[in-house]
Design goal:
Number of helices: 5
Strand content: 5-15%
Radius of gyration: 15 Å
Largest sheet: 5 strands, parallel
Distance between the termini: 10 Å
CATH class: Alpha Beta
Shape: globular
Number of strands: 5
Strand order of the largest sheet: 2-3-4-1-5
CATH architecture: 3-Layer(aba) Sandwich
Structural class: alpha/beta
Length: 172
């Protein structure tokens, strides 16, 4: 049983092989799936499928507008900053089906990072991203590592050795 009842602020890695339960754990933590006994969801946690399935007809701006309504601490300035850093301006009005997998994931990442959620769940955040975008994301996470109130729960096969993890959880 994984104890996530006291998430420290900063970066938390959840690692494991394929089908070890990384995504399910993030979804349960955010309330997207029902909690298991001993694993409560965090009322202010946010998880998104970074591929944004079933949202093909929406534009990035529509995705962000929908998230802004759900997230009372939405950071519009950070959204703009990330949009520029991840080179999404040219895609802002396009429907998602017109975007590459990497660009779709960047749209979701902008939403998660700008959400202001107390617990932000990132599921394999580097997948399908170009190296420039990986650097932007890694730099952002490094900057957030000492955040006083927000936790960043990041699931991947292994913990990025370049990030200052507060806690690493290895799933069997």
């Amino acid at each position: 049983m994984v104890d996530l009842s006291h998430l420290p602020p900063g970066l938390i890695a959840v690692t494991g092989d394929e089908r070890s339960g990384k995504t399910s754990l993030l979804r349960r933590l955010s309330g997207d799936l029902p909690p298991l006994p001993g694993l409560a969801h965090c009322p202010d946690a946010l998880w998104l499928d970074l591929g944004l399935p079933a949202q093909d007809e929406q534009t990035p701006q529509q995705i962000w507008d929908m998230l802004r309504q759900r997230c009372p601490r939405w950071n519009a300035a950070l959204q703009q900053e990330l949009m520029e850093a991840l080179d999404l301006h040219a895609h802002q009005g396009k429907q998602l089906f017109m975007l590459s997998a990497g660009s779709r994931r960047k749209v979701a990442l902008v939403g998660l990072l700008a959400s202001g959620a107390t617990v932000t769940c990132l599921d394999q955040p580097y997948a399908a991203l170009d190296q420039a975008s990986v650097r932007v994301l890694r730099d952002f996470l490094c900057d957030m590592a000492d955040h006083a109130t927000r936790s960043w729960v990041i699931a991947d096969y292994e913990a990025d050795a370049r990030l200052p993890w507060r806690r690493v959880i290895v799933l069997g």
